[in-house]
């Protein structure tokens, strides 16, 4: 192992080759002056092909994992020479075409070798020096985040966790423990009594409510059309989101035919981002968190302009008007009456909407006409618009506006979610991997803490358990006592990703025990007591990325290197802990990691043109013998070795093939035979369950939500930019709305410590040019962005492509909090998010208020000029 490590540290794949090797990167470098902070000088973007594969490559190409929660699930391949990665590449399994897309990786994936082989890897189990077992004063919780570290053995580390977990369970019971469903330690904790779980609306925001009650698919994903149908639309609208940045890999190619066919694109959101630019879209600027007002104005205009598809509404929906109410309606009101102002005296006109959302009345009227019933329209939304407080009516209203235009169930028409690798294509998966064969481990504790209130709940010793996002378990307010002592951080970057970092620091210091398994010395590790080094996927036996991927592709990866240093897999760690606490690990992990991978391979399927599922991979008895695994030989369409070498299998498509799928087609053709999953079997524009449940949860005053989609003011948001909370009044102390674009440098915080990626993307704060001018701030100035929840420093990227009144602070920067100043120096987004929620308990990342000013202290140095964060053992 020693020589390999030496070789790794000695190896040099020059910065110049990396940065120059990516066209996508070169394009983004050109976008703005403040984006080129550390661009190496003298590079010739055209000349180097550092990441291309060529015939003279020496060594062996093998498929490698890129498994992060980034939205792309791409083929990643590495060229290995003498045990060292000398190049990275991507999908070469076939020529690229629209019919048969390659699943190509992005620069993050191509920099992945810096993650596995990085100097910043955690190498050994560690203990925070001042922490001692036993609880109380012994924990020295006040030193979390600023203590020294010492190396300990695996046996000591597992011993501490076993003893402390037992002590805490015995003394306080499972409500004293918080976990996240992680893959190793937390599987054992589930067997020791379980733990409180954090529920987070995370990606899909308010779409993580019980969508089936509205008649939608879960999270509104799955019922837009297959990518071959996009060209049949006249107009494609994208509301919120930024797929060019957030849906890496080949996703944007889904839109190629539509772009070539001249389809008109429209983008609705606070910035003319890279996706709007890619589409050459018409931009309708609206403030973050104001989509409900915008869409209500659109609905009013559609009614006024006579462009609604009344037949569609009558046949497929309930609650649009008094003549079509659901049987369980308790309120004698309907959506149309609300829009026309019959109940509150306020018609939701374009002028009314414009004052709230910022779009012009002309734009609202134009939009309404453009999406009217006589046009072929696809209404797509990503989820940024739902990651806002008081956005709980967005899902129902988006569906309503789609239904008003009749845009469901027909070629050229669609209404629904466009997210991650599903940004331009839906339909059942045409290729999939099999089940690993592990039994499900049940956590016996079924209570939930709502993420934006997690840290405050720890401090308050009580929480409101209202069910789990992405399920149908929502319930009325249910306050419970909990004296939380132990926080396990495994597989979720809670300290970074959960709102209100300043509260987090205080809450973390109040605990008796915090453990973390990690690759790096990130914020989770920094605030823990025992830190365990885990292997990256490159050091594991192989596997399949579990997240979304193109419907046509199944992606597989293999082992790149033996585990580095003392890192272990989650299963190995869990096994050690189970043994230590006297649980038979084979009840949790009856199969080796290799057998699990082999089972997944054997279970891979593809869908043939006749629509039936077939085995994908040919596996011979020789293969089974060589793998020393259990299984039966099978016939597929790709040999095992070839599949693993390619890193994927992609179903080849053709114009007019049997795989084209139009969302909601079954329902529209025969609604009786194929009812929607709501109580009425139809799309519920009036949904009693929605109003009753949201009003009862205790995060908004009772009566806030109507059964139809009504406008609800945000706790901060647009209203909070005015001193008295009334639109149009005097400016408040925090007159801007800050939203968090998911950023190219990283996947959430993951990868943010990698030198190449820091060099490529400097992580500025995006501010509007006229706002900046009014404050005397120039591009590149260091600014302090602040609000009632915290303050952070960033370099200003002054731009015309963001609306006045808005601030774009990229998501996921690694916390660098100066406690004396009370200022984070890294641009950590959750420093500016508060313990403020509403509706379903939404993590409303995109509509907090803030202000900013030129920073009078020392100017920031570029992130890439800072030393890499590496733990020092004291
Ligand atoms: N302010 C603000 N906050 C946000 C957002 C925002 O826009 N603004 N976005 C939100 C969204 S949409 C999401 S989805 C969440 C994501 O929040 P999280 O669910 O916390 O996601 P990740 O950051 O991907 O965290 C995964 C963690 O697991 C670690 N890890 C990776 N592989 C392994 C492994 O094999 N074993 C173990 N044990 N650990 C592993 C990674 O290093 C990382 O620390 O963040 C949310 N937070
Ligand atoms: N590189 C990279 N890719 C990622 C991730 C990552 O961390 N890094 N994270 C992944 C995850 S888990 C997720 S959930 C997705 C998120 O994917 P997206 O939903 O595409 O994410 P955002 O980057 O938040 O979208 C930001 C854009 O949405 C618009 N916007 C912001 N707020 C609002 C609003 O209230 N209304 C409207 N109409 N528009 C708004 C702005 O124009 C902004 O440019 O990205 C995934 N992909
Ligand atoms: S988009 Fe995500 S999965 Fe694809 S290469 Fe980039 S980081 Fe990896
Ligand atoms: Mo997400």
From TrEMBL:
GO BP term, example: anaerobic respiration
Gene3D superfamilies: 2.40.40.20, 3.40.50.740, ADC-like domains, Dimethylsulfoxide Reductase, domain 2
Annotated signal sequence range: 1-37
Keyword field contains Acetylation: no
Domain Molybdopterin dinucleotide-binding: 737-838
Domain Molybdopterin oxidoreductase per the UniProt entry, residue ranges: 121-579
Keyword vocabulary terms for this entry: Metal-binding, Molybdenum, Oxidoreductase, Signal
Cofactor(s) recorded in Swiss-Prot or TrEMBL: Mo-bis(molybdopterin guanine dinucleotide)
GO molecular function terms noted in the UniProt entry: electron transfer activity; molybdenum ion binding; molybdopterin cofactor binding; oxidoreductase activity
Keyword field contains Magnesium: no
Domain of life, per lineage: Bacteria
Record protein name field: Dimethyl sulfoxide reductase subunit A
Organism, as annotated: Eggerthella sinensis
């Amino acid at each position: 192992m020693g020589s390999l490590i030496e070789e790794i540290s000695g190896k040099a794949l020059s910065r110049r080759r990396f940065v120059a090797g990516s066209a996508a990167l070169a394009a983004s470098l050109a976008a703005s002056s403040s984006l080129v902070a550390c661009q190496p000088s003298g590079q010739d973007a055209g000349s180097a092909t550092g990441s291309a594969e060529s015939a003279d490559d020496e060594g062996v190409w093998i498929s490698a994992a890129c498994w992060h929660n980034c939205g792309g699930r791409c083929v990643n391949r590495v060229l290995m020479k003498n045990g060292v990665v000398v190049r990275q590449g991507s999908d070469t399994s076939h020529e690229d075409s629209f019919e048969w897309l390659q699943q190509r990786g992005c620069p993050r994936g191509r920099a992945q070798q810096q993650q596995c082989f990085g100097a910043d890897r955690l190498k050994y189990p560690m203990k925070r020096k001042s922490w001692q077992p036993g609880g109380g004063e012994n924990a020295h919780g006040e030193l979390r985040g600023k203590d020294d570290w010492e190396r300990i053995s695996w046996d000591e580390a597992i011993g501490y966790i076993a003893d402390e977990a037992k002590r805490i369970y015995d003394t306080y019971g499972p409500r004293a423990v918080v976990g996240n469903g992680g893959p190793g330690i937390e599987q054992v904790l589930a067997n020791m009594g379980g733990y409180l779980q954090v529920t987070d609306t995370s990606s899909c925001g308010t779409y993580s409510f019980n969508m089936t009650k509205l008649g939608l698919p879960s999270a509104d994903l799955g019922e837009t059309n297959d990518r071959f149908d996009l060209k049949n639309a006249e107009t494609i609208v994208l509301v919120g989101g930024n797929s060019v940045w957030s849906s890496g890999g080949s996703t944007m190619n889904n839109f190629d035919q539509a772009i070539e066919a001249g389809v008109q694109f429209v983008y609705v959101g606070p910035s003319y981002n890279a996706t709007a630019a890619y589409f050459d879209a018409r931009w309708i600027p609206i403030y973050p968190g104001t989509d409900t007002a915008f869409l209500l104005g659109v609905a009013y205009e559609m009614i006024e302009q006579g462009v609604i598809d009344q037949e569609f509404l009558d046949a497929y929906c309930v609650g649009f008007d008094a003549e079509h109410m659901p049987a369980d309606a308790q309120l004698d009101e309907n959506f149309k009456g609300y829009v026309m102002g019959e109940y509150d005296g306020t018609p939701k006109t374009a002028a009314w909407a414009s004052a709230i959302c910022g779009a012009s009345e002309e734009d609202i009227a134009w939009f309404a006409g453009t999406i009217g019933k006589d046009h072929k329209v696809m209404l797509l939304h990503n989820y940024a618009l739902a990651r806002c407080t008081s956005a709980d009516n967005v899902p129902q209203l988006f569906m309503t506006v789609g239904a008003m235009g009749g845009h469901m169930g027909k070629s050229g028409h669609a209404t629904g979610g466009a997210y991650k690798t599903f940004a331009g294509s839906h339909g059942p998966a045409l290729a999939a991997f099999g089940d690993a064969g592990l039994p499900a481990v049940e956590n016996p504790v079924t209570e939930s803490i709502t993420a934006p209130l997690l840290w405050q709940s720890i401090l308050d010793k009580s929480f409101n358990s209202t069910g789990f996002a992405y399920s149908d378990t929502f319930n009325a307010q249910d306050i419970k006592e909990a004296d939380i002592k132990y926080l396990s951080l495994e597989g979720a970057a809670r300290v970074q990703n959960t709102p209100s970092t300043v509260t987090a620091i205080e809450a973390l210091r109040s605990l008796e025990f915090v453990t973390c398994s990690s690759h790096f010395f990130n914020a989770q590790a920094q605030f823990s007591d025992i830190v365990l080094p885990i292997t990256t996927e490159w050091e594991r036996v192989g596997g399949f990325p579990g997240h979304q991927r193109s419907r046509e592709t199944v992606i597989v990866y293999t082992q790149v290197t033996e585990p580095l240093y003392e890192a272990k897999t989650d299963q190995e760690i869990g096994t050690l802990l189970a043994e230590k606490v006297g649980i038979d690990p084979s009840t949790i992990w009856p199969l080796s990691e290799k057998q699990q991978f082999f089972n997944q391979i054997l279970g891979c399927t593809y869908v043939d043109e006749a629509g039936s599922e077939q085995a994908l991979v040919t596996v011979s008895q020789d293969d089974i013998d060589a793998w020393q695994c259990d299984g039966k030989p099978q016939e597929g369409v790709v040999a095992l070795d070839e599949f693993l070498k390619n890193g994927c299998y992609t179903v080849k498509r053709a114009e007019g093939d049997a795989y084209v799928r139009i969302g909601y087609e079954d329902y529209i053709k025969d609604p009786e035979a194929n009812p929607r999953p709501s109580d009425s079997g139809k799309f519920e524009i009036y949904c009693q369950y929605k109003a009753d449940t949201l009003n009862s949860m205790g995060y908004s005053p009772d009566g806030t939500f109507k059964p139809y989609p009504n406008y609800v003011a945000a706790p901060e948001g647009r209203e909070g930019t005015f001193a008295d909370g009334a639109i149009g009044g005097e400016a408040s102390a925090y007159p801007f709305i800050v939203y968090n674009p998911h950023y190219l440098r990283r996947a959430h915080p993951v990868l943010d410590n990698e030198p190449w990626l820091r060099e490529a993307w400097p992580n500025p704060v995006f501010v509007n040019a006229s706002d900046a001018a009014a404050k005397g701030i120039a591009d590149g100035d260091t600014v302090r962005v602040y609000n009632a929840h915290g303050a952070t420093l960033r370099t200003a990227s002054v731009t015309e492509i963001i609306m006045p009144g808005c601030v774009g602070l990229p998501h996921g920067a690694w916390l660098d909090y100066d406690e004396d100043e009370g200022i984070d120096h890294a641009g950590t987004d959750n420093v500016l998010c508060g313990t403020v929620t509403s509706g379903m308990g939404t993590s409303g990342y995109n509509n907090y208020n803030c202000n900013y000013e030129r920073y009078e202290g020392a100017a920031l140095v570029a992130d890439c000029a800072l030393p890499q964060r590496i733990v020092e053992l004291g």
